[in-house]
Specification:
The protein has helices at residues 2-19, 141-153, 165-185, 189-197, 201-222, 227-239, 250-286, 294-304, 309-316, 320-334, 339-347; strands at 23-28, 38-43, 58-63, 69-74, 82-87, 109-114, 119-123, 136-138. By secondary structure, the protein is α+β, with helices and mostly antiparallel strands.
């Protein structure tokens, strides 16, 4: 009986602990610079917001003590793991005009993977100057990998200070190749996603599209319902056509069909216009009228229908002055002096 009661008590405690799950991120930051004594935690719901410091993404804020220690905690995260940004704001700024500084002494942010059970401890190296300078991290394997990825990415941003174009290009190529290799060998799908998200999609997608698509299949396998999976495919479609027919959405097929239909309509209208021009040109040539351009023939036909210069300009999408210029040329070719004579002569064609 005693054992049964103990078992029930332990079960209740475990159930209560699970129901009270809360994340905690704490540690020590280097406050040598001119920073606010607050630390912000922001959600990253879309991949393109990975480096956006918009205040609307902030979900938690905590004070930083004089010795640089802090603790930020809560239980309001979604029920799935995703990216978050921990960052500081300059003293002269507010959370609404915050900036992210990459590399160097002002590097003021890190990226983490969190859920409501995450327990992370971060300690900056006080021998450095930046808030997160050479920081160490205690926590789960995924965040250890995020730390490793950060050490790969952020020092590489220094290549933007290189002056020679070829050296700059080679540095960018090396960073992107390192990111691809990191993603291929990483033990976490989400951290691999972070690595590929740091690549330059605009420059490298046309060349490495098969590799991006292959990782997309991995996302569909391991994270089929995660918001980032849908967002990743959207990002691929933005940077290039999706050649996987199985990924063609119904909306894309409908738009393609409508575009094809529009092209057919335009071809038919062009055919009718050519026939109309031909019908006008044949009697004119029979009477040995000087050759007129297609635009002049259109205007002549509209004149026969009693259209004014303004109406002709609106129908042909040209300026009224251009219409007048064409009409003057018509008068010369038809050997008439005014619109009335041009209409009478045109009626005989």
């Amino acid at each position: 009986m005693y054992v049964l009661r103990l078992f029930i008590l332990l079960f209740c405690c475990l159930f209560y602990w699970k129901g009270q799950a809360a994340y905690t991120v704490k540690g020590t930051l280097n406050m040598k610079g001119d920073w606010q004594y607050k630390v912000y935690l922001a959600t990253i719901d879309k991949l393109d917001d990975y480096y956006s410091a918009n205040a609307e993404f902030v979900i938690n804020v905590a004070p930083i003590n004089e010795d640089g220690t802090f603790e930020i905690k809560g239980d309001n995260l979604p029920d799935y793991t995703q990216f978050y940004r921990l960052y500081l704001v300059k003293a002269e700024n507010s959370e609404f005009d915050a900036c992210l500084f990459v590399g160097g002494e002002d590097h003021n942010f890190i990226h983490l993977l969190l859920d409501n059970e995450s327990q992370i401890e971060i300690h900056a190296d006080m021998k450095t100057y930046a808030p997160f300078g050479d920081y160490t991290l205690e926590g789960d394997l995924e965040n250890q990998l995020m730390l490793k990825l950060g050490r790969l990415v952020y020092p590489s941003y220094l290549f933007y200070e290189i002056k020679f174009p070829s050296e700059l290009r080679f540095s960018r190529d090396k960073l992107n190749q390192d990111l691809f290799e990191f993603a291929d060998t990483c033990q976490s799908t989400l951290v691999s996603l972070a690595a590929l998200n740091n690549t330059d999609f605009a420059s490298y997608f046309p060349t490495y599209q098969p590799r991006y698509e292959l990782f997309g299949e991995e996302l569909k396998t391991h994270l089929p319902k995660h918001p980032y999976t849908k967002d990743y495919f959207k990002k691929m479609r933005y940077h290039g056509e999706d050649h996987l027919s199985s990924q063609s959405s119904p909306i894309f097929k409908i738009l393609s069909a409508l575009l094809l239909l529009a092209c057919l309509v335009l071809l038919y209208q062009n055919y009718k216009l050519q026939q109309k021009i031909k019908d006008i040109q044949e009697p004119i040539h029979k009477q040995e009228i000087p050759f007129m351009t297609p635009q002049e023939l259109r205007i002549l036909d509209l004149i026969k229908n009693g259209k004014t210069n303004k109406e002709i300009a609106g129908e042909l999408f040209i300026e009224v002055s251009t219409v007048k210029s064409h009409i003057n040329k018509l008068y010369a070719k038809l050997k008439v002096k005014n619109r009335r004579e041009a209409i009478e002569k045109a009626k005989s064609f």
